[in-house]
Specification:
Number of helices: 4
Radius of gyration: 13 Å
Number of strands: 0
Helix content: 55-70%
Structural class: mainly alpha
Order of helices and strands: HHHH
Strand content: under 5%
Shape: globular
């Protein structure tokens, strides 16, 4: 058996939200948002849902990154 125990897996949007909340460098969060959106791995709405309740500063970082891609 390759996986002897269950593995927890998070969505791309949740991973980006968690990284922003955990203090990952803003440029890395912006890059992750940009690449995830460009590759079709997330939607702006999905990112918005993921950042709900993670803290104002982290949520604003992700929202600003979304806006940069949409411009």
């Amino acid at each position: 058996n390759m996986f002897p125990r269950p593995m927890a897996v998070t969505s791309v949007a949740r991973t980006i939200a968690d990284a922003a909340a955990d203090g990952t460098a803003p440029d890395q969060v912006r890059r992750a948002v940009r690449e995830a959106l460009q590759r079709g791995l997330v939607t702006p709405a999905g990112l918005e849902r993921a950042v709900a309740g993670i803290g104002a500063r982290a949520a604003e970082l992700v929202r600003a990154a979304i806006a940069e891609v949409e411009d």
